[in-house]
Amino acid sequence: MNNIELSESGNKLAEEIDRLACDYHIKSDQHEILKWEASILWAKSKDLIEDCGLLETLKDSTLLSKWGSYLVKEIPEVAIKVEEFHQHYNRIKSR
C-alpha cells in the first residue's frame, strides 16, 4: 500500500469513526475517544501526502490506548482497522 492509498483509507476510516462517535452522548468518554481518534487519523492521512509532521497530541491512538481499551471491546472490528492503519502508517514513516 502506497502513501496515497493509505491516506485515502485513513480518511475513510476517520469518517466512519466520526459518524460512530455520534452514537454516543456528546459528553461521554466514548464520544471524545472516537473524535480524538478521527482527528489523529485525518492528521496522519494528511502527513502521508504532505509530509507535514504531527503535533505530539496526534501521534498516538486514543482508541488503542488504556483510555480506549474498554471501547475496543464494544467495537472490535473498528479497532482492528484502526490498528492496521497505524501499523501501515508507522511502517511507511519509518522508511
List strands and helices in order, with pairings.
Elements: H1 3-21, H2 29-50, H3 69-74, H4 76-93
Helix pairs in contact: 1-2, 1-4
Task: Tell me what you see in this structure.
With 95 residues, the protein is mostly helical. It has one domain (3-93). Helix content is 68%, strand content 0%. It starts with a helix and ends with a helix. 24% of the residues are buried. The model has no long low-confidence stretch (mean pLDDT 96).
Outline:
The chain is mainly alpha-helical.
Give the tags.
0% strand, 95 residues, mainly alpha
β-sheet strand percentage: under 5%
Q: Uncertain segments of ≥5 residues (pLDDT<50)?
A: none
Helix amount = 55-70%
Tell how many strands the DSSP assignment holds.
Answer: 0
What is the averaged pLDDT score? 96
Query: Structural class per helix/strand content?
Result: mainly alpha
Tally the helices.
Answer: 4
Radius of gyration: 13 Å
Biggest sheet layout: none
Order of helices and strands: HHHH
